Amino acid sequence: MSNADLTKTTAEQARAERTRCGRCYRPNVDILEKPDELLVLADVPGATSETIDVKFEDGTLTIHAQVEPRQDAQTQYLLNEYGVGDFHRSFDVSEAVDAAKITAEYADGVLTLHLPKAEAVKPRVIKVQG
Q1: Predicted TM-score of the model (pTM)
Q2: Rounded distance, CA 62 to CA 111, Å?
């Protein structure tokens, strides 16, 4: 299984349209392949574990995180460079992942998803009888 199994093409991403007003960001991710699992590390600064939704449906893994503004609407900024908005990203997931065992954790602005590989695709060591 390769990272290409998890990512959508640019054309596929362009077809998705947002219907919610406000800013929406695409979180940066790292995808790592380990012997027993894939790890997805997504940057979602300003979110909390309560405002992050991770869903797996019909072979698609979706990350959505809501981030509330740090200041109220009446705040007078001298400089305002930090944009605030929701994070949203989706990936097509190979059938080589055991969807029932996907877990997630959030710490220090990083969402970590553990996608265990299905037993059928894990390498097996076969003992040779002599």
Answers
A1: 0.74
A2: 12
DSSP result, 67-94: ---SS-TT---S-------EEEEEEE--
Beta pairing partners, 117: 97
Report DSSP state, residue 97.
B
Contact 67, 47 (CB under 8 A): yes
3-state secondary structure of 119: helix
Q: What pLDDT score was predicted for residue 47?
A: 94
Alpha-carbon gap, residue 6 to 123, rounded angstroms: 20
Strand ranges across the sheet with 52-57: 24-25, 86-92, 60-65, 52-57
The ranges of the chain with pLDDT < 70 are 1-21, 121-122
Residue 5 pLDDT = 52
Count of C-beta atoms within a 10 Å radius of residue 63: 23
Q: What is the pLDDT of residue 30?
A: 97
